[in-house]
Amino acid sequence: MSESIQKIRFGITFKLGILLAVFGVLSSGLTGYYTYHTTREILVNEASRDLLQATQVMGRRFSILTNEAAKDALVYTKIRVMQDVTGQGPAAIAARQAVADQFKGLMTEHPEYFQVRFISARNNGIELVRVDRDGDSIRIVGGSDLQEKLHYPYVYETLGLAEGKVHFSRIFINREVGAHAGLQQPTLQVATPVVKNGGEVLGVIVINVDLNHMFDMLKADLRDEYQIYLTNQNGDFLIHPDRSKTFGFDYGRRFLVQDTFGPVAEIVKGKGDSAIVRTQVGGSKQEVLGGFARIPFGDQAEHRFVIFGLTVRLDMVLKGMTRLAENSASIVIAFSLSAIALAVLLAWVFVRPLKQLVESVGSFSRTRELSPVRVRSRDELGLLARSIAQMQEHLLAHLNELNMRKDVMEYRARHDVLTGAPNREMFFDLLRFAISSARRNGTQLAVLFIDLDYFKSINDTFGHAAGDAVLVAVVQRLKSAMRESDAVARLSGDEFGVMIQPAEDSDGVAHVAQKIIDALREPIVYGKITLKIGASIGISVFSADGDTPEELLHNADAAMYNSKRKGRGVFCFYTGMQ
Predict the structure, then answer these.
(1) Residues 83-124: pLDDT tens digits?
(2) How many helices (H) and strands (E) does the chain have?
(3) Active-site residue, 494 included
(4) Which one of 416, 451, 494, 545 is the catalytic residue?
(5) In CATH, what class is 68-210?
(6) The whole model's pTM is what?
(7) CATH topology of domain 424-573
(8) Domain spans of the chain?
(9) How far apart are CA 319 and CA 183, in angstroms?
(10) Does the domain made of 214-317 have the CATH classification 3.40.50.300?
């Protein structure tokens, strides 16, 4: 009887041990599987959202660059010598040479421009000034190489625009003979009319933008595994990693983004502004993640837009998951062996900690916050708890890194990379906020448009590294001359904007302007050389000289040109008769 009981007990213990061991193996396996796949989905979802945000940031930078070309064209319509370009005789020839030199300087500052021209409204649209990028050089074209362009839409359509309006062409493959670096390249043309003081249209300024170079600039901040896409409103690829699939409509074939990335069809149809995609590209079995966004550009009244996209291979997003999978496998094996050896004796100890671990993993999956794992034992369950905590820490670190990269991209979109000062876009945002505050409180503010004197000669003589050192020193001196409530921004090249808020009276503003001029007159030491610069300043005041950021900056710019005419190194208030 005793022997029979022993046999029965042995049988129950054995069966219970096997059952608990199987349960332990299954539980640990499911925990590892759930942790791995939940973490994988979290990474994929976070990466998808970050891709879309990065796409929108890059799209805004694309809009900023295209709008910058429009602003450059508008600035050159206001230079005095432009009024003399269409005339005859030595004065007209000198004016054309002066304009050509300024166009050449513009192209030096903007490597994405491959051609800048002034085209006359007369003589079938003859080119009077043309500057081409030819390889690594910039060439002023003249004589018989100048062509008649009146039959091109960007000329006759722009001639019909009002002063201050800008024509944006469709994005196309440039096939105009004589375009040199821009020949057979994807191109955007930005044009604006030049109007004489009496209202006569003299001609148009045309800037040809090389989209390949522009997108190389945009991609410079991205890692190599990211791919950039650009399409027109119909979904035709304009920029694609495989250039054979771009501009297919030019030679009778259509390569559409919605055929490759299905969800983007909603953007093309006008039913959405963004889309997240996860699909296989081409015949490859490799999955990619992507974010696509609708980016308006040009005249908003025309409702024109492009579709901008970023993709990355899924395995690059999940490359950190290999260690997680190995850790999960090690944990499952260690825990299973422990469960088999101690199943009967430690069954009650095993159930409760495992539940705590599952709850911890589930809580992390829901909240993405580290929660304390209350298992403190030194056995396999303790190892499992510590490993899960480590995996959670690694995952959070990875997510934080993604967020930091997003923050860096957003920072670079609103700040000048060289000096760290706010860029033009952020300066306009600060002005809008300050104007609202001034209007609400009945106070004034002043805008100073600062243009450095002799900066180009420093670049030409000592190189761009010296010029960069000058720009950094200028920003530091401007900040030291300002109050904490004021703002300093680098608008472009050697142009800076300063917002004084509040501005109590014109004498106080004049004192600040003179303080800036005196500060910038101080020599700048660069290595073993001493560099000297100066500044010409134009000042506009809210609300006497405008009640929008655009008006205030434009009028301050006009006042700055008046300072230049007075001999540089001085400041002028806007008078309305610049």
Answers:
(1) 889 888 898 999 999 999 999 999 999 988 989 999 999 999
(2) 15, 19
(3) yes
(4) 494
(5) alpha beta
(6) 0.51
(7) Alpha-Beta Plaits (3.30.70)
(8) 2-50+319-413, 68-210, 214-317, 424-573
(9) 41
(10) no
